[in-house]
Amino acid sequence: MRKTLLPALATTLILGMTSTSFAAANPFSDVPANHWALKSLEKLAADGIVEGYEDGTYRGDRNITRYEMAQMVARARAKLPTSNISYESRVELDKLAAEFRDELDSLGVRVSELEKHSDFVKWGGKIEYTYTHAKKDPYKTGKFTDIGNELLFRLEPTAYVAEHWTANARLDATVDIREDSTTNVSLERVWAEGDYDKFNVKLGRMELFTNEDGLIWDTDFSGAQLTVGSKWKATALYGRIKSDEGIGGGVLGEFENEDDHSDILGVNVQYDADEGLFGGLGYYHVKDDDFKTLNYSKNGDKDKANIWSANLGYAFNDKWKLYGAYARNTKADTEKYSWQAQLEYSNYDDNPEKGDWGIWTGYRRYATNVSFAPTAEDVLAGTKGWFIGAAYAPFKNVGIIAKYFNGKYITGGGKADNIFARAEFFF
User: Fold this and answer.
1) Which of 156, 238, 246, 283 could lock onto 262 through a cystine, CB 3.0 to 4.6 A?
2) 392 band by pLDDT with thresholds 50, 70 and 90
3) Rg for the chain, CA atoms, rounded
4) Cα separation, 305 vs 217, whole angstroms
5) What's the confidence (pLDDT) of residue 73?
């Protein structure tokens, strides 16, 4: 390997590491100011990955030894704990470490079989405690309460398969604090993903969360999903939803055919913008025998749903956003349209930094024959009303969320409100 190859190597492997400073001037006297690799060399020198000779030269046209290359790999690996190097770059760096294992051993850098492959799998997850207190009275027959008190442990591994391809999973285990009962660990999601510049494909059991921002779908499905584009994105998905997570066991309730699945075909187009207008359209065709109930069609003879949706919003900046979504099921005879509008300010997300926070308010209408499996943290199924929420991170990777909803049922007009609180710890 020649030293002239090192800048290309640095571009793909080491430039992902963040550095608080660059060299103030060209660190090597024999590298021209207009050389294409100068910026890379400046960063590598500032990070201590490469060093020149005592006379201040780099001598980039000289052949380097495997021992010298191993030194650079060792320095790069030493930067890993404090760097933001990408997952793909870590994998490539591990491959180099395996190639130069003997030379690294002679430098006192141990590369065991476990260490060689440690960065091929990235582990993430969280522990969260959720408390909910809902008051439900759908038909004004007398109030009753529904209290949730749950502890969740979630593990989400991502394994490198090949360039652009990963294997992913989600495993959950829950504890009902009220009854002190624990579920077994369940495999909630498992999918393969190919992620390219303007092309993404997923195969397996994965998240179903579409561009209506949880108005219709916030669940899982088994099948395939294809997305193309960058700012303008088109997504197509096909698969099925388990009865206890979608139609049969979701908004419409438990039915006799609990083992049935809901078949789903969906397409949507979305334009995203960091600032200014954004929006999109969607369509979902769903087939399920559970639709043949009196609360869906008057004659009980329909087993399909055709849902059309539109969303529109305005991003004032990367924190302030106003947006809304509307969806209508052209096959349903009752509760056949849903909508929501929300104003939010937030820099809070998964793995928050200390001090990140957010606040939001708005109105939601979750019709049972449209919002089959929506986001259920605040608004209750089959209701409409106002909500408010806030989130704050008192420490890095630790968050607290609180939400309140006040409204009434769409059918029957009974009162409904909900208190939601959560503490989450990411790792």
Assistant:
1) 246
2) very high
3) 27
4) 14
5) 67
Q: 3-class SS at 393?
A: strand
Question: What angle is formed at CA 310 by the lines to CA 305 and CA 316, rounded to 5 degrees?
Answer: 150
8 A C-beta contact, residue 108 and residue 391: no
Strand positions, DSSP E, 249-334:
261-271, 276-287, 304-315, 320-329
Compute the residue count for the chain. 427
For 177-303, where are the E strands, in sequence order?
181-182, 186-195, 199-209, 218-229, 232-242, 261-271, 276-287
State how far the Cα of 250 lies from the Cα of 289, in Å rounded to an integer.
14
CB 300 within 8 A of CB 293: yes
**Of 363, 356, 375, 374, nearest in space to 424 by CA:** 356
Backbone φ/ψ region at 420: left (φ over 0), alpha (ψ -120 to 50), beta? beta
pLDDT of amino acid 142: 81
The residue that leads in pLDDT, 33 or 371, is 371
The residues that bridge with 404 in the sheet, in sequence order, are 388, 419
Contact 253, 288 (CB under 8 A): no
Alpha-carbon span 406 to 383, nearest angstrom: 9
Report yes or no: 45 and 27 within 8 Å, Cβ to Cβ: yes
Residue 108: burial class (beta carbons within 10 Å; 0-12, 13-18, 19+): exposed
List, in order, residues 6 or more apart from 5 with CB less than 8 Å away: none
* Cβ neighbours of residue 406 closer than 8 Å, sequence gap 6 or more: 385, 386, 387, 417
pLDDT tens sequence across 121-147: 888 999 999 999 999 888 888 878 889
